[in-house]
Structure formats: C-alpha cells, structure tokens
Design goal:
This protein has helices at 3-25, 48-66, and strands spanning 35-39, 42-46. The protein is of the alpha+beta class and 67 residues long. A hairpin with a 2-residue loop joins β1 and β2 (42-46). The chain is elongated, with a radius of gyration of 15 Å.
Amino acid sequence: MTARALIILGIVLLAAGLAWPWLSRIGFGRLPGDIVIRRGNFSLYFPVTTSLIVSVVLSILWWLFRR
C-alpha cells in the first residue's frame, strides 16, 4: 500500500466513525442478516450484512479513485 492509500483509508475510517451515531439511527449496523447472540452475561454481535455493504461501497469508491 502506498502512503496515499493509507491516508485515504484513514480519512474514510474517520468519516465513518464520526457518522456512526447518525448511521445507527437509520438502522445501519442492525440490518437483517447481522448475527446477534445473547446468552446470560455474554453477547456476540457479528454484522454480516453491514460488512458486505461496507465492502461493496468501499470497493466502488476504490475503483472510482483508481480510474
């Protein structure tokens, strides 16, 4: 990875972190297909659908920047 790609990745992660409260209000992060297991004092959250959507969006952005 080049330094430019790492900087862009950092900016994207920062923007996602800052936008997370707004995104969670519209349901992002609790989509159908996200796995939640709760047992007693233990809870496991695995965002399968959310991860796929983020991956597709980042892949499209990466493709657009590389053109």
